[in-house]
């Protein structure tokens, strides 16, 4: 497990994007096989897309990039959310479902843009400052898919 902390809530958005790209490149450089990315936004970045594309082509063994579909309550087929909606074969876009297997009202969805759904409602998780509690959203679903992908990759 490689922890690449990049987000600073006090930093301007552009600084966080630069740090995101640095984190993706760092993980690629040190040998990650799967990258879990639970952030994103409505504006595409060619440099971010390039970093993910480079991860796809790393050493003949593509790095799988599992990305949250976003929590804007919108159809990603119409209104894109990045990086989940970059058209790259190593990205898996993840939306969140509840216990009844229904997409959460808060989650982005899309017949063509979202690849998979996973549990994302009231998931027990770590919280800031060493706490634990329940969280909801596509970030939680993305973590579930990342764990499953890691188990499949380990087995195969």
Secondary-structure blueprint of this entry?
Blueprint: H1 13-29, E1 34-37, H2 46-56, E2 64-68, E3 91-97, E4 116-119, E5 123-127, E6 131-135, H3 138-155
Report how far the terminal alpha carbons are from each other: 18 Å
Helix content: 25-40%
Task: Please tell me the overall pLDDT.
Answer: 93
Strand order of the largest sheet: 1-2-3-4
- Write down the Rg: 15 Å
Shape: globular
| Percent of residues in β-strands | 15-25%
Q: Strand pairing plus helix content: what structural class?
A: alpha/beta
Order of helices and strands: HEHEEEEEH
Helix count equals: 3
Structural features, described:
It is a single chain. With 156 residues, the chain is α/β, with parallel strands linked by helices. The strands form 2 sheets. It has a 4-stranded parallel beta sheet, sandwiched between helices. A two-stranded antiparallel ribbon has the order 5-6. The radius of gyration is 15 Å and the shape is globular.
What features would you highlight for this structure?
6 strands, four-stranded parallel β-sheet, 156 residues
Summarize, please.
The chain is α/β, with parallel strands linked by helices. Helix content is 29%, strand content 19%. The chain is built from three helices and six strands, in the order αβαβββββα.
